[in-house]
Amino acid sequence: MNWKERFPQFEPGLIELIEKEAVQRSFNAGDVIMRTGQYIKSTALVLEGRVKIYRENQDGGEFLMYYLLPGQACAVSMICAIQTHTSEVMAVAEEDSEVLMIPVHLMDDMMNQYKTWYQFVIQTYRNRFDELLSVVDNIAFRNMDERLEFYLKRYAEKTGKKSMDISHQQIADDLNSSREVISRLLKKMEQRNLVKLHRNMIELT
Amino acid sequence: MNWKERFPQFEPGLIELIEKEAVQRSFNAGDVIMRTGQYIKSTALVLEGRVKIYRENQDGGEFLMYYLLPGQACAVSMICAIQTHTSEVMAVAEEDSEVLMIPVHLMDDMMNQYKTWYQFVIQTYRNRFDELLSVVDNIAFRNMDERLEFYLKRYAEKTGKKSMDISHQQIADDLNSSREVISRLLKKMEQRNLVKLHRNMIELT
DNA sequence: TTCCGGGGGTGACAGAAATCACAGCGGGTA
DNA sequence: TACCCGCTGTGATTTCTGTCACCCCCGGAA
């Protein structure tokens, strides 16, 4: 699939510029696309696959904030590009993914010259901001059992799948919890007929 | 103080437009400037005082996200203005405050016509996004004792004061915790010589 | 002065979650 | 086949936090 079909709203001049200056990169499932603290040279637009954005702390803890789907962009890379120049988050490919990398030095001109780009950036800020607000809701107001349900439900929404190939340990990492807690909560959910548990796979019902 | 001195970066045409269309409003300490779910008619720029932005949940819980100081604006009111049309947060004046209200129907034109406004909006998104990231850090990775320390330290930074006129109950509300927990943690901080406790007042040392 | 309500201290307890310990199971590899 | 390692289940224990009960203290109002 051609990348342009992911961004039909872009105007011709912008498409031409991106065509000339941007680089398309492929990542395998599990690859780290961007590390916390890494110098940011490009803004990333997702073309195919699915990317998870994590917040990390010093002690090796990590916390899944949200997903990026095809047609979406990393708001953080747009922000960091101009402010701090190093990434505040980690981006990981959850599936094999295609990503379009646009050098940050072009951002200013693109914002000024191409209205469709400007609208895209504003829209990206808005969507990610909204998403961050619901992340705050979850960790500020909800217990782990509700956060786990939200986690599974969101996965189903984002992927359209009703089964998840994932270990309890990975879920615990995403929620910054521990494997035992997640196992126990999943068992309770199974007793309530919300899920069926298998090895390395969870069926959502 | 004239409002223009708070926004020296604005260009003449923009100042003229704001002068003509915006309304300046005064709030007393404790006044609610905007409620969750309220229809948004204006974008708010803070001229004087200090405004606290809260996220609320259905059960009456609230959670302080960040402060707005003079010269800053509510990113949420910019976002909601166009997307959902109702506020996702609550804004409360912590001190007597002056706020400039700009009707949202002007936003589109202002973004297009006035580069200094556009830059201001982008900058606002960035700052609030960064602030939200550190909020996520705190509640995702830190225990209540560290969150309390962050809360006090941030207050000192934002106000430049080294004493806080506030009850333990109000702190508990801001952190979505309970009065007893905050009292106990403050006592421990006092034993470590980080604070001195008084009635309705905390001295930061 | 007395009364009363809000602020603050403290112990007892309950529930959520993290941690430790250990056992069974399954799938891949030597 | 035998082995190993990662995934899962489960009990015991501890820590953190929220909740309940009850106390005293202060300051303003009557």
Written account of the structure:
Two copies of one chain form a homodimer. The first copy, chain A, is α+β, with helices and mostly antiparallel strands and 205 residues long. Chain A has two domains: 3-140, Jelly Rolls; 143-204, Arc Repressor Mutant, subunit A, CATH 1.10.10.10. Helices cover 43% and strands 24% of the residues of chain A. In chain A, helix 3 (107-113) packs across helix 4 (115-141) and helix 6 (168-174) crosses helix 7. The longest helix of chain A has 27 residues, at 115-141. The first copy, chain A, is elongated. The mean pLDDT of chain A is 94. At the A-B interface, helix 2 and helix 4 of A face helix 2 and helix 4 of B.
How are the elements arranged and paired?
Two copies of one chain form a homodimer.
Chain A: H1 12-21, E1 23-27, E2 32-34, E3 42-48, E4 51-56, E5 62-68, H2 75-82, E6 90-93, E7 97-103, H3 107-113, H4 115-141, H5 144-159, E8 163-164, H6 168-174, H7 179-191, E9 195-198, E10 201-204
Antiparallel strand pairs in A: 1-7, 2-6, 3-7, 4-5, 4-6, 8-10, 9-10
Chain A binds a DNA duplex (30 and 30 nucleotides) through helix 7.
What tags apply to this protein structure?
alpha+beta; 3-stranded antiparallel β-sheet; homodimer; 205 residues; Arc Repressor Mutant, subunit A; Jelly Rolls; 2 domains; 10 strands; 43% helix; DNA-binding
